[in-house]
């Protein structure tokens, strides 16, 4: 298939496909799916070998959010029966983090609901990071606290944070359909603030909210241009009690096509299968490892994942290995870009496709001839519409409870 040969060749060179090629990946048929996964797998192995990076979520503050993100169980007015609690104490968060690290995670993701942190919240997270790094100085810490104000990213960096997560979630064009209390531009601004402070930028998307293929391609190209070092690909978990509870739009095959498209557009970037892995990929999860090089271990913020040991068994059975604490995740040339990202207005330079090292160099690959797609061939793009709320299990253990975390 010419498309896959082209995408593989570009990916092996670290080049980004054209927008038409990315759209064509999403339009491939079920008969072509294993070839798509194999092609994306070659690109994945070129840059990341057979390593799987494990990340561990600690929800520092759950629910009670004043924002209205339609996809979120913690949103204003959510009727989802999730855990609701305010800030964990540093030792409580450190206990949860320790369980994840003991389970094999090299990165701990400290997340708090809310529009954005106050300066007092930055103090709390500073204390929490100190407690975690006291126990394990090598652990990577990614912080996710919402929209950042001036100097907050610099304070987090100085306190020992390695990365900041803030997802773009969907295309600029449709952003207003999923949230009204902040804008796409607000989100871009925070990713740029984090990157500009020298934090590794983690920013991704949510698929399955009713978006078009064009929306998915738009957000994935935007993430590439923003210079995100890690791209979490979430598959919507349609929580009962949220506005998107009936949006069961994803099949395992569709999820694999989306992951492959993200990989081709981000050949040398960490691609993480994030929330919704178990709910939507289901028994096809191991195929996802051939495309993505990173997953969350154990539970998510407000929902339960499969048992941590099952994650580890899956990785081993599929012929992959857990990435060790001493191993670099990104290929050397990408790590160099990340290290150089604090050169003045680095993030905005990356966003404009030039001016800050080699970032712009492969962000805009030359366009090839359009790719022919068999539009009549069947593809199981959507689920059969069945509401599978039985697959969504609210998290009732770990952080914020007396029960042991899943790791
Ligand atoms: S995604 Fe974040 S900002 Fe939006 S409702 Fe959920 S917790 Fe609040």
Short description:
With 407 residues, the protein is of the alpha/beta class.
Question: Which descriptors would you attach to this protein?
Answer:
11% strand, binds iron/sulfur cluster, 10 strands, ten-stranded parallel β-sheet, TIM Barrel, single chain, alpha/beta, 407 residues
The fraction of residues in strands falls at 5-15%
Number of domains: 1
The bound ligands are: iron/sulfur cluster
Considering DSSP H and I runs of 4 or more, what fraction of the residues is helical? 25-40%
Q: Whole-number radius of gyration?
A: 20 Å
Low-confidence stretches: 342-373
Principal-axes shape call: globular
CATH level-3 fold name: TIM Barrel
Q: Round the mean pLDDT to the nearest integer and report it.
A: 90
Structural class: alpha/beta
Please explain how this structure is put together.
- This protein has 407 residues and is an alpha/beta fold.
- It has a single domain, classed as TIM Barrel (Alpha-Beta Barrel), CATH 3.20.20.70.
- The chain has 15 helices and 10 strands.
- Strands 1, 2, 3, 4, 5, 6, 7, 8, 9 and 10 form a 10-stranded parallel beta sheet that branches.
- The longest helix has 17 residues.
- About 8% of the residues have low confidence.
- It binds iron/sulfur cluster (SF4).
- Iron/sulfur cluster binds next to loops.
